[in-house]
């Protein structure tokens, strides 16, 4: 077995894979960064939130094998997604607008938070670019693809993005469709 096949199987096998069975991505209220004095205070607050988050999960179902982790998208939302969106819009307007659509691919979108934050920012700050935006998620995990689809329907605000998003549930290693248009890959 090739190493890449072993890794893919270990991570995404629907019966025992890490992302299918064990991982839980931290979600919680965004931090009020203006009220945080320094990095040690941030890490203390993050630790407290982790404990509260995992305790709530344990009340529903205790799982010794659970792996709780975070991403910058979740910790620094919506600012992290907005920073990426600002870069995408600026670069797009300098090099591709108005001749091409803004085509964004995100591989492994987790909870779908980055997708929502990027699309919210573009919609709210540049409706002309938003009208030309297409967002495609390449997600190998069926459970995470389902979670991303749910994220698009959680609120009326997010539902507005549904026609912009295509969630492609397959491994990027199995990708066989040429993309001839200029695009951004996250």
Biggest sheet strand line-up: 5-4-3-6
* Uncertain stretches: none
C-alpha end-to-end distance? 29 Å
Report the average pLDDT across residues. Answer: 91
* Number of extended strands: 6
Q: How does the helix and strand content classify structurally? A: alpha/beta
Radius of gyration: 18 Å
- H-E order: HHEHEHHEHHEHHEE
Q: In what range is the share of β-strand residues?
A: 5-15%
Largest sheet: 4 strands, parallel
Helicity, in percent?
Answer: 40-55%
Categorize the overall geometry: globular
- Helix count, per DSSP? 9
What does this protein look like?
20% of the residues are buried. This protein has helices at 3-12, 18-22, 39-60, 72-75, 79-95, 113-125, 127-130, 142-152, 156-159, and strands at residues 23-25, 67-69, 102-107, 133-138, 165-168, 184-185. The chain has 186 residues and is of the alpha/beta class. The mean pLDDT is 91. It is globular, with a radius of gyration of 18 Å. The chain has a four-stranded parallel β-sheet, covered by helices on one side. The protein has a two-stranded parallel ribbon with strand order 1-2. Helix content is 48%, strand content 13%.
Brief synopsis:
The chain contains 9 helices and 6 strands.
Task: Give the secondary structure arrangement, pairings included.
Blueprint: H1 3-12, H2 18-22, E1 23-25, H3 39-60, E2 67-69, H4 72-75, H5 79-95, E3 102-107, H6 113-125, H7 127-130, E4 133-138, H8 142-152, H9 156-159, E5 165-168, E6 184-185
Parallel strand pairs: 1-2, 3-4, 3-6, 4-5
List keywords for this structure.
6 strands; two-stranded parallel sheet; alpha/beta
